[in-house]
Amino acid sequence: MDIDILPVGPIQTNCYLITCRSTREALLIDPGWNDPGILSAIKKREALVRAVVNTHAHWDHIGGNAAAVKETGARFGIHEIEVPLLNRRGGAEFWGVPLEPSPEPDFYLVPGDTLSIGQLQFQVLFTPGHTPGHISLYEANRGAVFDGDVLFKDGIGRTDLPGGDSAQLADSIEKVLLALPDDTVVYPGHGPQTTIGSERQENPWILAWLD
């Protein structure tokens, strides 16, 4: 599994290009901006992008959906609960951010389902709290979880935006993400990667909850 981490857009959202080494089939997670670096990474990997997915529908995670789908011909997926926010351009107008509308989903990310990309198997985890329909994608064989804006290195997702719920976020972290093996690498929506074990031991929010 090759992982290209591509920070894009005004607040440097991590877009992830995940390519199966055997088949060159690829998954593109959270193309948050129409950034030429995304297409360059795809071409460099000679990747065949089969799906474009959003962990959630905030503007900084969906801004490049239209361009990515157009350029790759990939199918687009998101959790069904996020569609109203997606159709409002993820709140971009409130922040004064010009944003091309996202295409409508071709499929929904259903918690418990598995998204197959080449030989990679991504389990859809339901991790609401930052938004009502937030999901994470877990590749158990490679020990990696792509968790959007739920858990960061030494931090957690904000819950003060419309649809945020601090109790839900705490449940998502404690009952879903912390249930993963400690050596699972966490690839968040912003900032550096970390591991479940590191956050269990060092994240001040988690330590406060578990105290």
What labels describe this entry?
Metallo-beta-lactamase, Chain A; 14 strands; six-stranded mixed sheet; 211 residues; 29% strand; globular; alpha/beta
CATH class: Alpha Beta
Name of the CATH architecture: 4-Layer Sandwich
Total helices: the number is 7
Shape: globular
CATH superfamily: Ribonuclease Z/Hydroxyacylglutathione hydrolase-like
Fraction of residues in β-strands = 25-35%
Mean pLDDT metric: 95
The secondary-structure element order is EEEHEHHEHEEEEEEEHEEHH
Report the CATH topology name. Answer: Metallo-beta-lactamase, Chain A
Short description:
The chain has helices at residues 36-45, 59-62, 65-72, 83-87, 166-177, 196-202, 204-210, and strands at 2-8, 13-19, 25-29, 48-53, 75-78, 107-108, 114-117, 120-126, 135-139, 144-148, 151-152, 155-156, 185-188, 194-195.
Question: Could you outline the blueprint of secondary structure elements for this entry?
Answer:
Elements: E1 2-8, E2 13-19, E3 25-29, H1 36-45, E4 48-53, H2 59-62, H3 65-72, E5 75-78, H4 83-87, E6 107-108, E7 114-117, E8 120-126, E9 135-139, E10 144-148, E11 151-152, E12 155-156, H5 166-177, E13 185-188, E14 194-195, H6 196-202, H7 204-210
Parallel strand pairs: 3-4, 4-5, 5-6, 10-13
Antiparallel strand pairs: 1-2, 2-3, 7-8, 8-9, 9-10, 11-12, 13-14
